[in-house]
Amino acid sequence: FINFFIQIKNIFVPLKPNKFTIYFTMIMVIAFRIFGCEAGIPNFDYTLEDAVKEKYLVGYHVINRTSKMLSKGIDYNNLTKDEKAQLDEYLEEDPPTPDFNIPGNEIFKYLFNKDTCRRVLEELMQWGYRVDGGETLGKTIIFAYNHKHA
């Protein structure tokens, strides 16, 4: 069964990604019919724990960092004079009104702070998962709100 998909991949990899996806989906439908699999019903369960135990994957740990601003958002009325001045300067093209409010889960729609992003990457480089005897940073997933934030 796996060899079937390896051969199909070798045939379709040279295609552009969007055409590859279309052709691969068609092949999957055909393969399900050939091998008698029901569409949408898993026929094999390979858990993360199994993959880690068999050394196909490594375990992970989450490094969760937050701040008051990220968890509670920004309420203009609750900012200090200095914070209001900083926000006014940052949003000078569209200055905030006294009822200005940004929920914590939408901060990165409005604000982008290079220094914060730099600090996150520094912390990752210092404390991130290491491989090759600690010489190299291991594969890492960083979640970002949008491309600019990433």
Description:
The chain has 150 residues and is mainly alpha-helical. The chain is built from 7 helices and 4 strands. It has helices at residues 2-12, 17-34, 48-53, 68-72, 81-90, 107-110, 114-127, and strands at 74-75, 101-102, 130-131, 136-137. The chain has a two-stranded antiparallel ribbon with strand order 1-2. A two-stranded antiparallel sheet has the order 3-4. The model has no long low-confidence stretch (mean pLDDT 76).
Keywords:
150 residues, mainly alpha, two-stranded antiparallel sheet
Largest sheet: 2 strands, antiparallel
SSE run: HHHHEHEHHEE
Shape: elongated
Number of helices: 7
Helix fraction bin: 40-55%
Low-confidence segments, given as residue ranges, are none
Structural class: mainly alpha
Strand order of the largest sheet: 1-2
Strand content: 5-15%
Give me the Rg, rounded. 24 Å
How far apart lie the N and C ends? 38 Å
Mean pLDDT: 76
In short:
The protein has 150 residues and is mainly alpha-helical. 45% of the residues lie in helices and 5% in strands. Strands 1-2 form a two-stranded antiparallel sheet.
Protein topology:
Layout: H1 2-12, H2 17-34, H3 48-53, H4 68-72, E1 74-75, H5 81-90, E2 101-102, H6 107-110, H7 114-127, E3 130-131, E4 136-137
Antiparallel strand pairs: 1-2, 3-4
